[in-house]
Specification:
The strands form 2 sheets. The chain has a 3-stranded parallel beta sheet with strand order 1-2-3. It has a two-stranded parallel ribbon with strand order 4-5. The chain contains 13 helices and 5 strands. It is mainly alpha-helical and 332 residues long. The protein is globular. It has 2 domains: 208 residues, 3-Layer(aba) Sandwich (Rossmann fold); 80 residues, Tyrosyl-Transfer RNA Synthetase, CATH 1.10.240. The longest helix has 28 residues.
Length: 332
């Protein structure tokens, strides 16, 4: 049986980008892989690399877990848990730091981008967190990790660390492979299609929250940036806004981008965006209803408790093996 692993950071409001690029992809993957066990965790340790308000973080953690279940995640095939409830993540993260080079961490895109701005509030965790991300993956012997375009670099580092430690200490880790979705891997900001849709943006005009009401969703999609060309076609270079909207349309309807473009061949952006706005709203309405039902019952905590027990047992055994391989402790 293969192991598929994924995690999502609980910071800010979950967005349409999170749903299309991660949640929906993960659920669909599960539906098509009967011979796999899925480890899915809420990456709350990664959230605190920047300052978080306690009440907001607690809310976001439950939102992430609840929304995955609302989207159709099968609890019978899933180990759903909260990262910080498994202390082996942080401990293995340190062991991996000891086998990760400074140059590798300095090349990580997120660190380079933030460091380039010369922000004096950068924490050391923002530099070292890729080692913790590698620990998240390697701790459970993941065969495959679903990743978007912006996360491929992190998985490559995890693979490099695994290969390095296998060479140094013997058989330590399975080397994971990526699963990259063909469409919808990265949904862009509605107002600035040059950057990824982010739940951390100060302005909420560029993203659709999964908790927005119908009127707000429709307004945001209708006001999305397009261009003056006036043709509905997929051209990320010259028409990034329209191309982003086409990607959203395709992933939510499972129509091909080619078929969508043909549908609006003689029509303008107004009708295209109006239709898309109602598609997004009609997709999120039942999702939110299921989320409300799950989070208002005891089901969510029961599933998280079960996931914690299963993940903890596996993590303890794995970390004990790695420490023995390295030579830590007293047992030879």
């Amino acid at each position: 049986m293969k192991t598929i692993l994924s995690g999502i950071k609980p910071s800010g409001s979950l967005t349409l980008g999170n749903y299309i690029g991660a949640i929906k992809q993960f659920v669909q993957l599960q539906q098509h892989m009967d011979d796999a066990i899925f480890y899915l965790f809420v990456a709350d340790l990664h959230a605190i690399t920047v300052e978080q308000k306690k009440s907001d973080l607690l809310t976001a953690i439950r939102q992430v877990a609840g929304m995955y279940l609302a989207a159709g995640l099968d609890p019978a095939k899933t180990v759903l848990f909260i990262q910080s409830e498994i202390p082996q993540h942080a401990e293995l993260g340190y062991l991996l730091q000891c086998n990760t080079y400074m140059g590798e961490l300095e090349r990580m895109t997120q660190y380079k981008d933030k460091n380039r701005k010369q922000d004096t509030s950068l924490t050391s965790a923002l530099f070292t967190y890729p080692a913790l991300m590698a620990a998240d993956i390697l701790l459970y012997d993941a065969d495959y990790v679903p990743v978007g375009d912006d996360q491929k670099q992190h998985l490559e580092l995890a693979r490099d660390i695994a290969i390095r430690m296998n060479h140094r200490y013997g058989d330590c880790f399975k080397v994971p492979e990526p699963i990259i979705p063909e469409v919808g891997a990265r949904i862009m900001d509605l107002q600035n299609p040059g950057k990824k849709m982010s739940k951390s943006d100060e302005s909420d005009k560029g993203y659709v929250s999964l908790f927005d009401d119908e009127a707000t969703i429709i307004k945001k999609i209708k006001s999305a940036v397009t261009d003056s060309i006036g043709i509905v076609q997929f051209d990320p270079v010259h028409q990034p806004g329209v191309s982003n909207l086409l990607t959203i349309y395709a992933t939510l309807t499972e129509l091909s981008i080619q078929d969508i473009c043909a549908k609006y061949e003689s029509k303008g952006y107004k009708e295209f965006k109006e239709d898309l706005a109602h598609i997004v709203a009609s997709t999120l309405k039942p999702l939110k209803a299921r989320y409300d039902a799950i989070t208002s019952s005891s089901e969510l905590d029961r599933i998280l408790d079960e996931g914690r027990e299963i993940a903890s047992a596996y993590a303890q055994k794995k970390l004990r093996k790695i420490k023995q391989k390295i030579g830590l402790g007293r047992k030879k």
